[in-house]
């Protein structure tokens, strides 16, 4: 037996150890590498998205000729009158 095949589990009584299976250790190492790779890919995608969003924001800032304005008071259109009247009828019922 090799000393490296044993590990002390946290929360266990002092001196109690469990033998690790070599396959389990290899699986954990493989999973760790996979997670690190996925993490790096996600960070790269995040940086690309942030860069793209900042570019779009700059473009919107430069072409600020068009922007949304709040509604203004004025005569109601026929369609707006019909909708408001139907809402009033529904509220009364």
UniProtKB/TrEMBL annotation:
<feature type="compositionally biased region" description="Basic and acidic residues">
    <location>
        <begin position="53"/>
        <end position="62"/>
    </location>
</feature>
<feature type="region of interest" description="Disordered">
    <location>
        <begin position="51"/>
        <end position="93"/>
    </location>
</feature>
<protein>
    <submittedName>
        <fullName>ZBBX protein</fullName>
    </submittedName>
</protein>
<dbReference type="InterPro" id="IPR037688">
    <property type="entry name" value="ZBBX"/>
</dbReference>
